[in-house]
Amino acid sequence: MTVAELDRAAAAGPxxxxxxxxxxxxxxTDPNTAFWALVDKTRIAESxxxxxxxxxxxxxxxxxxxxxxxxLRFALTxxxxxxxPTERCNLNCTYCYLPGQQRSEGQHMSESKLIESLGKxxxxxxxxxxxxRQERKPRAIFHGAEPLMNKRAVFAAxxxxxxxxxxxxxxxxxxxxxxxxxxxxxxxxxxxLSLDGPVAGITDATRRTWGGKSVHDKVLTAMDKLKGYGSWxxxxxxxxxxxxxxxxxxxxxxxxxxxxxMLNTLRCTLPGARTVKPADGDMAQAFFAALDxxxxxxxxxxxxxxxxxxxxxxxxxxxPTARRLMCDISPCGGGRAFFALAADGSLxxxxxxxxxxxxxxxxxxxxxxxxxALKSDAFRIVTARNVDQFAPCNDCTIRHFCGSPCPAExxxxxxxxxxxxxxxxxYKEQVNYALRLIAxxxxxxxxxxxxxEGTDTTFLMQ
Amino acid sequence: xxxxxQTQTNPAAQSTAPAAAPTIAIRKSCNPDGIGLSHYVxxxxxxxx
Lengths: 462, 49
What we know:
The structure holds 2 protein chains of 2 kinds. Chain A is α/β, with parallel strands linked by helices. Chain A is built from 18 helices and 13 strands. The N and C termini of chain B lie far apart (76 Å). Residues 1-13 of chain B have low confidence and may be disordered. The interface between A and B is large, with 86 and 30 residues. Strand 13 (456-461) of chain A pairs antiparallel with strand 1 (25-29) of chain B.
């Protein structure tokens, strides 16, 4: 049998109990279909027995849930590209996934090559994005390294292809002057910044220039320039250095009217990052305190600060296909929902792999381009990583809410694609926290207003 | 020293089991188009239009 057939054969399996630490509720899940329910924790057997309303309703839907999850996991075609227009960065962050030599001495992609590359990418996306859904443009995200180190080429590309792609820029914010903000916001480019501390002393522990200078105040200035814009966000990378200050980060972001942030676990792909890796339990404690604070601020002011990486876990539970982030799913989005273009024209499943030559899938401008890369062994080793097929994930009740990110760090830090990611226990705690919020009727407070517009309700008991 | 704890039985409590917490299960579905990753996210699809 194929993996797909095995998945479907296993649909409607027994509902497995999960202690979520709630006073009244336990979760039951069918891991194969990512189905879940919250039941009275003192009546689990009765609630899930054959013939019970829950068991019968699930049995009727199990096959369609299995098909839905299978399509999400194995049948997507790319709809986005991450563009690295330069190898260079003006910062030397402790945990960067790109090798230091590239960032300090690397090359820019020339304007003409970037334009040529986007032309080829437009041709590719037109071939795979279905007709009749043209309101949805492919996404093209500049990031890196620091994309605004090559601002002229980036802006020329946005100008040239503004009708063909929905553009985004993830930047450290240090080069985001008034002119750049005007250019990007007037073209509805989504802008992401990075800030690691509520005060300079904390940010500086992991994010400084090559000469050791602080950039904290420059990022705050950039945040002020973006206040009121509809499409911007800030990423905080959580490390041992800033973990005690996550609640203050949330307060700072809320005060600056940041609409969306991510409080990310750092990626441990390269050894430097592992020097500031927090323990799972510490990460969970600080992260939940920050989420609790974001909720208090929402209740006090009526204004939400969306913590996107947590919102995505909620989405994975409530509406698996509505996920916005494609890290927390297996296989991850790398090489199938999106791919990355390096500054030298090479294609990688995800930018996280750019420092690892064995994951180079070939050059965009060579014959075959994207199609050849997607079929390459370099991509297939990533797209074949499947939590159903290796321990301990294959026995985990929440494996399709988590996906065991990230393949790059599993491979580099833990020794292979059949290894777990760097924050297994943290993910379990996150899922429990999310399920507790659902039990308490608070989940919508952690999602953007109207998040379920355009969705169909396929199961409802409450 | 031993201590005997006497318990009193409330007849009303004995015959009334606590109400079960109602089962909660929700699943929604849509066309998937997420492409975010930990280096970048755009949560609200409308913001990209």
